What does this fold into?
Amino acid sequence: MKWLRAFLPVAVLVASGVAAAPATAAPGWQKYVVAPTTRDVRPVKVLSTSGDVSNPNGLLGRGVATFKRQAPPPKPVWPAGTTATASSFHAPNNGGNGQPRTYDPGNAVDGNTETFWNDDTIGAYPDVLTITAAAPVALPGVTLLSNVDGVPQDFTVEVLDAGAWRVAATVGGNTAVQRAVAFDRPVTTTQVRITVTKDQNTPSGEFSRVSEVWPGLVADPPVPVAVLDFGKVVAGYPKIAFAGASANRPGVRLSFSETQQYLGERSDFTRSDFSGGPGSDQYAVPATPTVWRDTKGCQSGTQVCADGLHGFRYLRISLDALASDAPLAQPSGEVRISGVSLDFTPFLGTPSTYRGWFESSDEDLNRYWYAASYTNELGMDTFRESDVDPRGAFSPSLDGKLVLHDGAKRDRDPYVGDVAVSGLTQYLTHQDGTAARNVLADLADHQRADGWIPPASINNYTLPLFDYPLWWVTSSWDYVLYSGDTAYAASYYSHLVKTLDTWYPSVTDSRGLLAKGLNGTGGYGDYAFLPRTGEVTYYNALYVRALQGAAGLARATGHAADADRWLSRASGVAAAVNAYLWDPAAGAYLDSATGAVRHGQDGNSHAILAGIASPSQATSALARLAAGALPYGNPFMDNDTLVSDGTKRVYAFTSFPELQARFRSGQAASAIDQIKRMYGWMAAHDPGITAWEGIGEGGSQYEQGYTSAAHGWSTGVVPALTNELLGVSPTSPGFATWKVAPNPGGVSWARGAVPTPKGALSASWAQQGSVFSLTVTAPRGTSGTLVVPAGRLVLLDGRAVRAAGTLAVSGGTHTVLVVR
It folds into this structure.
């Protein structure tokens, strides 16, 4: 025992707390919690004002803010009989709300601001609108009123002068919905020609949209506007305390945005965008004091309407009214406001609600963990008909239940692929899994006769996605692992069998691989609606993971033969992936056996997690993924042959399995670097704190204002840090067995707790020099393994053991000291 005596002083030093002191001190994680302390949330500051707004701090409850605006003068009109033609115009349709709408050029001179000309060449230019007056008109200029859903940015205005066309004005970089364009000199003419060469690119498309062209320079009194900042993305029902108003029912318009960049008259996303509405919420203010709570619906018939719940950071309030809301709401008068607030409806994640927590020596990682938890909380809300995304998403079977929506502002509908990440985040932070179970059970209840499980309630459970039934399988296994709810597994076992033994075999080719295109699936999408076909590595690697998870569910419910059969199939698919989809020249798995050669983050990461890749293949594939590293993360493709920005687009959703793969392949330092680039970028850019749906070229929001800046599928940093860096994870349902396998990388210490059905499972570890210490406390009646670094000396609960880094223990408290 001479070797033991030689190292005892070091062991005693560690046991005394010198090396492990940070990990045994009182936890301070509560300071990182992001959520509001109450459901009555107030803005933190007035960001800006314009027009006649006095005492804007009244919006914060400090006195009374007053908005004043004189009535706009009558608009000039063209001579009767004036006509307009255009290079193209969109065909009539129902405008997204079932109401017939036309888009012909005559709408631009009809005096009706609710109609507009819409060209028919999306993103292609020039777009030309020519106005022919019935009689000569003296013009100092013209005024363009655009449709609020995108405005012409670059355009010229020509006039017919002395029988010839000449350019009278040139406009560049316009963002104003109403733009007065002065001519270089006054002219009397019968024709004006507007040529657009660039429009705003909006979620509704890049079109030229002009509601009115007025003959003359229109200078309306400025609209009083105030912009409020709530400090971070919030969700719920806005409220305004009105101290009174003038007797003419002045209108107030509200628009919302998660970022300042996309804040304007129209919200960056609102449900009325998708139903033909104005993209803002309207209210006609009464003369007497009142508190208005933003509620979905209209004050009268189809006039003065609002959307109700919103997810946003910034709120724009203006004294204004839509022309279509007259006479119920007027764009002038006086409005007095004594406070603005929000009824916060999502899960309120205060320190007292955390059943699991995480803390480490790295302040950045701590902030990202709790910011991601808050992101997930914003989507954890009650499913309500008035709040869900309007595209056929309402479902009576979900109504009133707690669910995991995709995001705060959109999509407010639970998707199972997103639950694959947001569910894990939920299990590791607050809940017992109720929200995830409600989603998983409901989707299974709507299983198609051929075994396919819908991804969400959207489009009445018919949205055709190829990969999401696999996510239902893996998410169901995760739910049972964390919750121990084997009754759920038993209730939906037949659905599991039907998915794996009926539907996926119907899209399996002669080489034993899933092939999108078989059995009528050519038009099916996936998590990003990527135009992939044939044998795709991601689909097949996820299939292997689903079969492995299904085997766990089978064993948990007494179906051992099914488990063996599915594991055998998984081995066959894995062998086929290696035989047909490995690209030795690139040292990575092909994205698809069909089409241009490329290599995807999703397929390679899942191949590693599924055990398809050998250790050498995993190392090579991860090096390939890191080769295109960006300041804001790792891109999801290594070239642009699938989509034009494949090498510039970053998804936290597809980055999460890469992080897992790096931790599990002994590359903890590179995983931490990737976390810091991706989550650090989002934390440092507007709106801050919350995790975005996707990051685009240059670190932008990848789908402009449509992008959700608080999306549950981007919260993988929570399970990455808890399961992989801290190292705590279940190995059988309900943590009956578990594993603690730290992957410290360069982190000095970490500690945390994971909720289990029998109580918290806590772990803390520290490394200092050649000494590593780990303490684990697990519920009685459970057992697990401790995976620690190999060392010259290993002490388990004070006793020297000879082990290859893996120690079997029962519930209770155990301490391991390793001298390397």
